[in-house]
Every structure is written in structure tokens, then in C-alpha cells.
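Section 5.1 Outputs to date
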Amino acid sequence: MGDLAIDFCGEWYEPSDEDIFDIGREGDLEVDDNPYLHRRFLQIARYDGMWWLSNVGSMLSATVADGSGGMQAWLAPGARIPLVFSHTNVIFTAGPTTYEFAVHLKTPSFRHEARDEDQAGDTTIGPVVFTDSQKALIVALAEPMLRRDGTGFSAIPSSAEAAKRLGWALTRFNRKLDNVCDKLDRVGVVGLRGGVGKLATNRRARLVEHAVTSHLVTPADLHLLEKMSGVDEG
């Protein structure tokens, strides 16, 4: 295996130092024949002794996070980010489908040292505290990804499907989704609003990407689906 390797659906790819590695509907890594996905969406290449991930698409964005969930970035069209961790997860959504691949570096320029007191999946992010029902909403949307092993792709449930999973009325689900997105937007999580006072139409996808990569929700939280089923916290 070379210095950098990519894992997608259990298949491994090793970009060379000299070439640009294209990821999209077509390219070196053909993700899926999805009409919502750019033919060339992401590129991985080595410049000035460092590997870079670039978004060469025009519409879609990607969420990039280290394996621990401690660092997360939103890669918008035209942006690029250095790949400095030994394990980096990349998640993006095209239409109804969310995709994930992992980038592994043998010689990372940054190493994360975990502390014993580090906790993953806490319900607090900075000043944001989520109730059990709000967290259950996130779990309901992220359930396909949380139950999937490894990298690959999954479909994010519609609001109606997630509401049914929880035994809630759709109006209640949407109200709580508004509250969750608003809380995260206020602390700087990008992509949850489409403009001033207007929630983004793809907020469910962005919420799931953020929640999974930051470890806001983990498979250990799946029990909330049953715990909060039909429960009304107001």
C-alpha cells in the first residue's frame, strides 16, 4: 500500500503521487451512476509535499472529518483542504443518497492523541444541549448510516418516514427538526440554512453528515428510537 489509500465499500484505491485522482459519477473512483452526482466532484492530489482534497463540483458540498470526530470541515464547491490525519472520513449527499469513503495516510502530518476523559456522542456541543427527543430525531434520520458497517452509501429517510419511525406526527417532527437545526446553526454549523431566516432544503442530509462525523450520535444511541417512540416532551 502506498502513502495514501482510499476505502469505499470495501474496495481500496491508491492514488499515485504524480496524478490527480478523480471521484464522482465518472473517474478513478466511480461512486455511483447517480444523476444528482457530478461527473467529477472531488479530487485528491499531492502538491508541495502534501495531499489535498478539492471540491471541483459546482453544486454539491462534502463534510470532512478526522476519524475521532474532533475536527470537521464543510468543503464547498471550489474549496480544498489538506489531508493531514491518519484517518479522514468524507461524507456527501447527492439527491436521496448519502455516500461515505475513508482516506488513510501512512505518514500523517497531524496525530490526534486521545485523552481518557474524551467522550464521544455527548449531547452537548459547546453551549448546545439536546433533549432526548431532539437526539432521537437525529438518530432516526441517521439510522441507516449508524447501522451500516464501514464505508459505502445509504438513503436518508424522508421527514415523513423518520416521523413514522418515532411514532410522531409529521408536524411535531418538523417543529423539532427546526429547533435542532436552529440550535446548531447558532453555534456555527454551516449548511443548515439556505439564507437569512430560510432553512436549507437539504438540511436533513447536512444534519446527518454533521451528526455522524462529529459523533453527536453513534450506534449506542439507537436505543433512543424505542425509548422516545410516541413520547411527547412538548
